[in-house]
Amino acid sequence: MAELCTAAEPEEITAGGDRSEAHQPGRRLLPTSLTPWLVFLVAVLWHSADRLIIPPLNRLLEANICRVYFREHDPSVIDSSDQVPEHLCKSNSVQIQLALLLGCIQTIGLVCGRLYLVPYFYRLVQQTLTR
Predict the structure, then answer these.
(1) pTM over 0.70
(2) Of 28, 10, 27, 8, nearest to 19 (Cα)?
(3) What is the phi/psi pair of residue 7, to 5°?
């Protein structure tokens, strides 16, 4: 049967999970010089993924706004598969609604992103003031 780690023996477990060598205080899993590069890589990948999702999202939102608009104003242009031809979706009224919706999405993302940083900023200020 596998051994369970108790609260009395955490110093025996290393990063790999084996108990062959004791934990050394101050030992890091990653070298200090590598950490900024990994953070940079994660940020680049996150930003790239965020940019890759924008064109399909725009098309889906535009198609839905267009369908709703033409259901109210001219249902004859909606085909049997409940789709509207894309060239009709380029009208000003549909594009204005799309721009408003995309602006709201961007604003909500920006506000949530900034609110997410507040606890970290508070912690940073506390650490700075206690030194």
Answers:
(1) no
(2) 10
(3) -70, -20
Side chain identity at 126, as an amino acid letter? Q
Long-range contacts made by residues 21-29, C-beta under 8 angstroms, separation at least 24? none
Contact 77, 84 (CB under 8 A): yes
Give the Cβ contact number of residue 94 at 10 Å: 20
Q: Is 80 helix (H, G, I), strand (E, B) or coil?
A: coil
**CA pair distance 29, 13, nearest whole angstrom:** 13
What is the rounded distance in angstroms from the CA atom of residue 77 to the CA atom of residue 53?
29
Tokens of 108: 């909500």
Helix axis angle for 35-73 and 92-130, nearest 10°, is 150
- Measured CA to CA, the distance from residue 9 to residue 6 in angstroms comes to 6
pLDDT tens, 28-50? 676 777 878 888 899 899 888 88
**Contacts for 88 with CB less than 8 Å, ≥ 6 apart:** 66, 70, 77
At 80, list the tokens. Answer: 């049997």
